[in-house]
Amino acid sequence: MPAPNIETIVSLSKRRGFVFPASDIYGGLGSSWDYGQLGVELANNIKKSWWNWLVYERDDIEGLDSSIIQNRNVWKYSGHETTFSDPLVDCRDCNSRLREDKLERNAEGKPICSNCGSTNLTESRPFNLMFRTTIGAVSSDDDPMALAYLRPETAQGIFINFKNVLDTSRRKLPFGIAQIGKAFRNEVTPGNFIFRTREFEQMEMEYFCRPEDAAALHQEWIDGFQTWLGTLGILPENLSLYEQQAHELAHYAERTVDIMYRFFPEREDEEKQWDELMGIANRKDFDLKAHSKKPEDAEGKRVNPDSTEDLSYFDPQTNERFYPYVIEPAIGVNRTLLAVMMDAYTEKTNEKGEVRVILKLKPELAPIKVAVLPLAKNKPEITEMARKIKRGLQPAMRAVYDDTGGIGKLYARQDEIGTPF
Ligand code: ATP
After folding, report:
1. What residue owns the CA closest to ligand 1's atom 6?
2. Over the stretch 213-227, which tens digit does the pLDDT of each residue have?
3. Cα 36 to ligand 1 centroid, rounded to whole Å
């Protein structure tokens, strides 16, 4: 039985050291979270699984780690400066600030405040989600020459390095570039624990291919990721696919399929139990073209006068030059960690009627692999041997020694955090 709701995981996380509210001693900060001694291990293991599956176990994917702060033109030509916004409304009755596209509507189609139920809302206005900062020692905070952004996605760092990787790795299509890193979005309504935060971590892969192969490869990645999520222990009955409708598609996307997870099993309305775990988009050749100096409009003017490179691809076999299409599977580390914990969560009642929590994590994901627990803590010959075993294991894996309780209690503690051995 998976966790009945996210709250169960919030409390386990805080009790055992997976995830803590950030800046807690100063009253917290909106919806920021810190990963504790077990959370950091679990997150690292999820990232390792993703990286191994894509970069090590396949022959056609390279890794990358690009900067969080880039030249502002990256976000100009990617379209983020003009279109990366959410529709914002304020409730005139309770002053809540809300995302209009997430609100329920009344019979006349008017959006309803999710806080107080009023329909007395302001007109919706676009709110850009990118965090702004300034570079260098500047005289004023709004100096446009110094303006920069924290990246709202890792993907653009891949596109602008396409030629670097292509030239230095001598790759041929199809091939991919994978990256894991922090992304920042000034979300209007963050919440639901680590589901939606303003600072989060993404695992994104851009798979470059010939345009005519894109549709079939897109489907392959949709199928492939469901399999990978299964290897993390996420239950098939808690995953579903959502095909984005024409009006929901990003301007550059030909087709996008979201893999949904049942993050809210407690909700009565089955449709509302699901939310996005990851998105898999066919971005066509939009990004590589947008960042290239080459393409010209009908009047012969360069579409991107700031770029110094052409990001097209030359196929030596067909002697053609073209802009590859891109399939992008994008998934959040944090949402994956939440889904993994929810599906691993199990409660068991023992003979005494006590409820015990068992976290049935896959051994590869478990924060601690081995716990060495001596049966008697007063006998040096036993405790010394146990410590020695622990020290022997620790270069190869995370191992712990614990003698601070009776053996039953020690076992129960490890069961609760998913230690396999
Ligand atoms: P949503 O519709 O939930 O806002 P999105 O479609 O904007 O998400 P993408 O831009 O496709 O998200 O980002 C890829 C993935 O990054 C998401 O599927 C999700 O796992 C993760 N992600 C996006 N925004 C956040 C956030 N604010 N907090 C945590 N994870 C996020």
Report:
1. 279
2. 999 999 999 999 999
3. 22
